[in-house]
Amino acid sequence: MRILVTGGGTGGHIYPALAFIRYVQKIQPDSEFLYVGTHRGLENKIVPETGISFKTIKIQGFKRKLSLDNIKTVQLFVESIKRSKEILREFKPDVVIGTGGYVSGSVVYAAARMKIPTIVHEQNSVPGITNKFLSRFADRVGISFPDAAQYFPENKTVLVGNPRAQEVVTSGKSEVLEQYGLLPDIPTVLIFGGSQGALKINQAVIQALPKFSQKEYQVLYASGDRYYNEIAEKFDIEKINHNLSLQPYIKNMTDVMANVDLLIGRAGATSIAELTALGLPAILIPSPYVTNDHQTKNAQSLVNAGAVKMITDADLTGEKLVEAVDEIMGDPEKKAMMAKASRQEGIPDAAERLWSLVNEIVK
After folding, report:
1. What region holds the Glycosyltransferase family 28 N-terminal domain (predicted)?
2. Where are the strands (E) in the chain, listed by range?
């Protein structure tokens, strides 16, 4: 099968797409893939490193306020559809899958107009403008949260989950924490502010470190490159206590997540897919800087299920962070109940479900 995948701008659109590609490569090795992104998006850096064929089109998003830039955006959209059709005629895909971002708007729309089977995949509980637009033309819409169904045509929409979940669930217990100077048999809290880090989380961790150093559990904090030096200058982690580990970034995040007891971080769609697939309890701090406040809505469904505790970015302090961690880590029964609820919310066969959707529409 020839499969064209498109999506970009942020990791939340890219990593689920790559996870799905890797799944299909395992079960159907003779499949051929083409990934279409933009030269300015994160996908231009990430996808070529995987060895997957990659092409770009030029596109930009609409400004939410009236702007002359929107005239240019319309022109680029028209041009990008022409370019998309050229790519589609050349590659001749059996199916086109869009995972979000402006680039997928042009490619999936062009494919639908050319009568090529199309699928839109939505990672968040509240969809972005591109996927809402595309849902009118696509053959199927795969969603990751049940709440997202209300925004799409009922007869096209299927709950499939996020393909990243299926990758993560294959990670098992290991000695990976030793790579970060921690012991594998001590309860561990992972704090992660995203690849770029998060200012409010970083400020809270700085306030909390002295108290964390006195706990029986250990803490692994991935600060992001932006904030690593700031913390390293303020604290000599090795001298504070052996139960703290500060890292700028964690490359083998899925392996680490499979070996910790509690996750603290943002409420992005990929993170939620991963933690629920593993059955991890979590403290989520939704980013206030995302479109439609979708991270709060992502987290709320897990709060309602009893799987996570949510602290708003505005309310987050070091003291509140320590209190929240102690409340969970100090109560094994509560932690176990949260873990069970988290696992029940997970969709560990998400890539398989999306693949079934492909086979439904490809004749």
Report:
1. 3-142
2. 2-6, 32-37, 53-56, 95-98, 118-122, 140-143, 157-159, 188-192, 218-222, 244-247, 262-265, 282-284, 308-310
pLDDT digit string (tens) for 331-340?
999 999 999 9
Whole-prediction pTM value? Answer: 0.88
Q: Where in the chain is the domain with CATH 3.40.50.2000?
A: 2-168+348-361, 176-345
Known binding site for UDP-N-acetyl-alpha-D-glucosamine: residues?
10-12, 124, 195, 250, 295
Give the 3-state secondary structure of residue 188: strand
pLDDT band at 270 (very low <50, low <70, confident <90, very high): very high
The pLDDT tens digits for 54-108 are: 999 987 665 555 555 656 667 788 899 999 999 999 999 999 999 999 999 999 9
CATH match of 176-345 with 1.10.1760.20 = no
| Helix %, strand %, coil % of the chain (to 5) | 50, 15, 35
Give the C-alpha separation, 116 to 131, whole Å: 17
- Kindly give the pairing relationship between strand 188-192 and strand 53-56: unpaired
Between CA 360 and CA 119 the distance in angstroms is: 11
Reported CATH class of domain 2-168+348-361: alpha beta
Q: C-alpha distances in angstroms, 169 versus 9, 56, 164?
A: 26, 32, 9
